[in-house]
Design brief:
With 107 residues, the chain is mainly alpha-helical. It contains four helices and no strands. Pfam families: Photo_RC.
Length: 107
């Protein structure tokens, strides 16, 4: 108890008079850090920009060169489909050797 109180008082300059405040603070700090990091991950996943509050859809409508995650996905999928269509599909050209094929009265 004394070591934890000394630890928090050295870091934040706060000394706690009772255990309840100390335990609340010891829970509050890591939980708040976890929530803030989770919000940061969500912000990165959704491509949110803190310095740019203009919606990406509005900006993409005004500027055709502006690339969003949505347009990247569409272009990537179209490129993959075009590449797959041009490729020879190996399963269509399989030739089995005669010894693998069943004979007339195999069943």
């Amino acid at each position: 108890m004394v070591i934890a109180n000394r630890f928090w008082s050295q870091i934040f300059g706060v000394a706690f008079s009772n255990k309840r405040w100390l335990h609340f603070f010891m829970l509050f700090v890591p939980v708040t850090g976890l929530w803030m990091s989770a919000l940061g991950v969500v912000g990165l996943a959704l491509n949110l920009r803190a310095f740019d509050f203009v919606s990406q859809e509005i900006r993409a409508a005004e500027d055709p060169e502006f690339e969003t995650f949505y347009t990247k996905n569409i272009l990537l999928n179209e490129g993959i489909r075009a590449w797959m269509a041009a490729q020879d599909q190996p399963h269509e050209n399989l030739i089995f050797p005669e010894e693998v094929l069943p004979r007339e009265n195999a069943l």
